[in-house]
Design a protein that fits this description.
single chain, alpha+beta, ten-stranded antiparallel β-barrel, 2 helices, 10 strands, elongated
């Protein structure tokens, strides 16, 4: 009889211990499941960083007037252009459409400016109606932007550097220099841009 009572209590204690373990295990599983679902939940679209916001200066329509100097096969002479820039959907890139005329004749172009957080540089890609594709990288220091690019002119290697100074919110100066096959840089273009429309707010996707 005593043995029977002891056995019964032992069985009850064992069942209670099992229930406690199952309850703890269930709680742990629930916690891990909630954490996993939270990690997998969509965080929303990425947002442009503060570096991208500096490109806002370009938004609007600009009238550009300047003069080109002869360089290699390129003739010199005055040039004019109109460029309209706006935020591309998502707010990561500024898209510009330009149209103008100069010593080489009329020309149209479309360009995109952005920021590469991996290389920590600004990027510029332009495609023109004359078949040129321009890729450039840039940095900004205060009100001065510096861009560099490499290209080919026949068999010659051409290094390009562009300096843009923001004189005010509605005016900038532009200087383009070129070097051939590692030689000294020469000023090839100088221009001034004036904004003729107010900036539009950044577009959202």
């Amino acid at each position: 009889m005593t043995f029977h009572v002891t056995y019964t209590r032992s069985g009850a204690d064992s069942k209670e211990a099992i229930m406690k373990k199952m309850t703890i295990l269930l709680a742990v599983c629930t916690m891990f499941l909630a954490t996993s679902l939270q990690a997998q939940a969509p965080q929303g679209p990425p947002k442009p960083g503060p570096e991208v916001k500096k490109l806002d200066y370009n938004i609007g329509t600009w009238k550009v007037e300047g003069e080109a100097k002869p360089f290699g096969p390129m003739p010199g002479g005055k040039f004019t252009s109109t460029e309209t820039c706006e935020w591309y959907s998502g707010g990561f890139f500024v898209m510009c459409h330009s149209e103008g005329a100069g010593p080489m004749g009329p020309e149209k172009g479309v360009s995109f400016m952005g920021y590469d957080p991996n290389e920590k540089v600004y990027t510029y890609h332009e495609f023109t109606s004359t078949g040129d594709a321009i890729d450039s990288k840039g940095t900004v220091n205060g009100d001065t932007w510096n861009w560099t690019a490499e290209s080919k002119m026949g068999d010659a290697k051409i290094s390009v550097r562009v300096t843009i100074k923001q004189v005010s919110q509605t005016e900038y100066t532009f200087k383009l220099e070129m070097s051939q096959n590692g030689g000294e840089f020469s000023v090839v273009e100088e221009a001034t841009g004036h904004k003729v429309t107010a900036a539009d707010p950044a577009k959202k996707s």
